[in-house]
Every structure is written in structure tokens, then in C-alpha cells.
Amino acid sequence: MRRISLLSTVASLVLLAAPAFAGQTNYAPTHQNAYSNGFAIGGTASGLSLNDNAIGQSNLLLGKGPTFQSNSAPTTQHASSHAFSLFGDADATSVNTNLIQQDNTKLGKGPTFQHNSAPTTQSAVSSAVSIGGDASALSANSNTVIQGNGSAR
What is the mean pLDDT of residues 67-90? Predict the structure, then answer.
């Protein structure tokens, strides 16, 4: 008479119920807003709005079989700065910076689906008004996206 342990039976069922593919997903949505206002009478009015975003996403899979690897980092940034000075200087600066690094790597046999997505929306608005002084306004957006997909057998 052959005996089968309960543990062996459960382990076999778990292996049969396991998916036939491996999946890895990273998702990092970012929403940033920065607002500033400066007001002065007889002096300098300054406004500075700054958004800085850095995201690193990586998937590494070792093994065989079909795989799915996905990175997603949607980013929305808005910076708004305003300055007003009466008998002085007015300076307004709005800056958005965004750095996204995404990588998918699979080492092993089998079909692989790899996907990277980093849609970015940025707006920077600055205004400076001076009566009796200098006025300067600066708005800047910077977006850097580095993406890589690799597979080796």
C-alpha cells in the first residue's frame, strides 16, 4: 500500500494552481503643485516655486517561461510664482524638474513582454511686476527619462 502525505498533496496542488507566467509591475504616479507670491513696498518682493521629482524603477527576473515586466511613472507638475513690488525689485521663479529611470531585465528562456511608460505633464508660470524698480520672471521645465529593456538567454 502506497502512502501519500498531506504535505506532498498540498504542495502538488499549489504547483498545479500556480500561474504559467511571472509578472512584475511598478507603478509610481506623482502629482506636484507649488505656488508662491511675493509682495513688497519699498523693498524686494520674491517668489520661488519648485517641484523636484526623481523615480527609479527596476525589474529583474531570472528563469524561464513567459514573463511580463512593466514600469509606469505618470508625472504631473505645476509651479506658479508671482511677485509685486512698489518702489523696489520684483523677482519670480518657477521650476519643475523630473528624472525617471526605468529598466526591465530578464535572464532566461521564454517569451517576454516588457513595457516602460513615463508620461509627463509640466507647467511653469511666473510673473513679476515692479513700479520703481527692476522686475524679472523665470519659468523652467526639465524632464529626463531613461528607459531600458533587456533579455538574455
Answer: 96
Q: What is the pLDDT of residue 147?
A: 95
pTM comes to 0.80
Contact (Cβ atoms closer than 8 angstroms) between residue 30 and residue 76: yes
Q: Estimate to the nearest angstrom the gap between the alpha carbon of 134 and the chain centroid.
A: 37
Q: Mention every residue, 6+ apart, whose C-beta is less than 8 A from residue 68.
A: 21, 22, 23, 24, 25, 112, 113
Grid coordinates given for 73: 511613472
Report the alpha-carbon distance of residue 13 to residue 69 in Å, rounded: 26
**Cα separation, 45 vs 31, whole angstroms:** 28
Q: What are phi and psi of 13, to 5 degrees?
A: -65, -40
Residue 50 · residue 98 · CB < 8 Å: no
